[in-house]
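Appendix C: a fully annotated inverse folding record. The material below is reproduced so that readers can follow the format used throughout the book. The structure is listed first as tokens, followed by the designed sequence.
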């Protein structure tokens, strides 16, 4: 007896017509459905016919700012749309923040995330205000959404670990309050030397506390911003291999190739997780350029080729830095295909992995995946495979958490009135398929 069976599913690895049996919140069986027959033995309390749609593990956002989300227009708009004005605007908003408003906006965003099949999020929480109202709010949100979203919190000294008055003490207090990950922003310190010193100090704290590290690193067009090199070296020094993420890494798009030929092997040796944010990186970088204008995203293809784990983040949704966003990680992957110029079939499969399994690895998520014994956290999409999912950004027909359906979306089907043509058009079917 299964609690639920999903029949006729297509899986991200290319298997088609698969039945998935779920029991006690976990995947209990995976078996081919031969010739359309129900070959998975046993009855089920509920059955979902995927009808040869893609069924995947849930999407993961390894880099987000939930304390800022949905605050667009408060206290004013970012007129220039630049990173620096966004930071200044957040500084204006910060003294006005209340715990109640932060919680309300975050919960509203999490509703959106669930509808998009996004069930794991790592958010950076600003610790620059000694009130730490952002930390209090996000800890409350983490507890409230635990039944349906796994939320990791990063202690993030937005204005700089050393640059901010009481920045050192505030970050330590945030960790004492229960924040999960040590963050930093070395390129925003006053000098390159202070930036490097912050990396060393923060990695030391992580090693002493047994915590992971996730730093905003080199989010700039300056090719001489090379804090990722220091982060990789300190990762090795403090025995943090596999537990450290370098987010953004946009300066790599401007570095000379000889230096990068040294840097990437060092990152691979340190087992650094790289987390680019395609939507925001392409929007905010290259703002000082006329033409030619730099693309603004790190060297995704080269990092992947070196065996470095690359995971894509959404970063922002309707906040001081980014006025757009939908909580849809497939939108992130869609942009990555274009900006990284990874349009080949195998390229797109790697992009999809950067939204799912790679992010699970970067965040150390246990029980994630499409295998017997894994948590029954699944998404049924109105698309036949990962290539079509990235192309269409389709409806999430069903979102499951521990084997329970927690969100449904009706399939997008257009009704047509055209002479001699079909009466309807399923948006999830490839019109060229035979």
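Designed amino acids, in order:
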């Amino acid at each position: 007896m299964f609690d639920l069976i999903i029949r006729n599913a297509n899986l991200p690895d290319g298997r088609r017509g698969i039945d998935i049996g779920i029991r006690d919140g976990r995947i209990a069986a995976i078996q081919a459905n031969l010739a359309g027959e129900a070959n998975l033995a046993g009855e089920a309390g509920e059955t979902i016919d995927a009808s040869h749609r893609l069924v995947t593990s849930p999407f993961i956002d390894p880099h987000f700012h939930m304390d800022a989300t949905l605050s667009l227009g408060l206290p004013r708009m970012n007129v220039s749309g630049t990173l620096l004005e966004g930071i200044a605007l957040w500084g204006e908003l910060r003294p006005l923040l209340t715990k109640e408003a932060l919680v309300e906006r975050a919960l509203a965003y999490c509703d959106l995330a669930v509808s998009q099949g996004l069930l794991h999020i790592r958010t950076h929480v600003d610790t620059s205000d000694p009130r730490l109202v952002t930390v209090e709010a996000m800890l409350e949100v983490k507890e409230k959404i635990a039944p349906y979203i796994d939320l990791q919190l990063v202690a993030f000294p937005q204005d700089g670990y050393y640059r901010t008055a009481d920045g050192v003490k505030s970050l330590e207090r945030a960790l004492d309050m229960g924040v999960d990950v040590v963050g930093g922003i070395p390129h925003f310190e006053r000098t390159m030397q202070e930036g490097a010193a912050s990396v060393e100090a923060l990695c030391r704290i992580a090693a002493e506390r047994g915590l992971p590290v996730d730093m905003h690193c080199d989010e700039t067009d300056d090719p001489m911003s090379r804090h990722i090199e220091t982060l990789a070296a300190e990762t090795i020094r403090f025995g943090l291999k596999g537990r450290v993420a370098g987010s953004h890494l946009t300066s790599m798009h401007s570095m000379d190739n000889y230096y990068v030929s040294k840097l990437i092997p060092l990152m691979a040796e340190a087992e650094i997780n790289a987390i680019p944010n395609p939507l925001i990186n392409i929007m905010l970088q290259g703002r000082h350029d006329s033409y030619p204008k730099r693309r603004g995203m790190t060297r995704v293809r080269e990092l992947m080729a070196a065996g470095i784990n690359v995971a894509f983040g959404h970063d922002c949704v309707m906040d001081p830095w980014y006025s757009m966003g939908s909580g849809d990680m497939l939108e992130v992957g869609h942009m990555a295909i274009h900006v990284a110029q990874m349009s080949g079939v195998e390229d797109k499969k790697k992009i999809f992995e950067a939204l799912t399994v790679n992010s699970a690895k970067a965040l150390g998520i246990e029980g994630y995946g499409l295998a017997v014994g894994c948590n029954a956290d699944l998404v049924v999409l109105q698309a036949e495979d990962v290539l079509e999912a990235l192309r269409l950004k389709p409806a999430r027909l069903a979102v499951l958490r521990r084997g329970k359906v927690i969100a449904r979306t009706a399939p997008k089907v257009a009704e047509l009135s055209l002479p001699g043509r079909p009466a309807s058009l399923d948006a999830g079917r490839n019109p060229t398929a035979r």
